[in-house]
Amino acid sequence: MDRLAEKRVVSDQVSFIGTMNIAAAAAQYTHAQLKNPAASGKILLLRRVVIAAGAGMIVGIGRYDGDLASLSAAVANKRIGSTVANVGQVRFANNAAKLLTAFKHVAVPTNDARSYSFPSPFVISAGQGIGVFAGTVQVEMFATFEWDELAG
After folding, report:
1. CATH number, domain with residue 12
2. Among 7, 14, 57, which residue's Cα sits nearest to residue 148?
3. Which pLDDT does position 82 carry in this prediction?
4. CA 8 to chain centre
């Protein structure tokens, strides 16, 4: 993003961060998602995903347009003190099967985190979502999404 665009995002107070901790569940894959609700009227620009885990694993990143079961309340505007609310939803779930097909895989070492910044923002239109999932069952996973919201 060039400096002028970055300045606009900051002044418009449309940059957000959302995080969650998905507990391990027996014989279940952990999933996290950034979802743009169907009637949001916005476009989400996903800039970065950070994934951490207590156990080493491969994490998949891919598209998932359904709503994962639980909604995380841990979302903040990156302009401290701003009252502008987000439309993007940070969601999570455990499931016996992997719910999405990965277009990217990231290795996360034991007791470590990996950050993946997209070369250009990943555009998420209304009704669409991007998710991450642990490639191993019964693994606790932490996930953080960083995104901007623009009129769409």
Report:
1. 2.60.120
2. 14
3. 87
4. 22
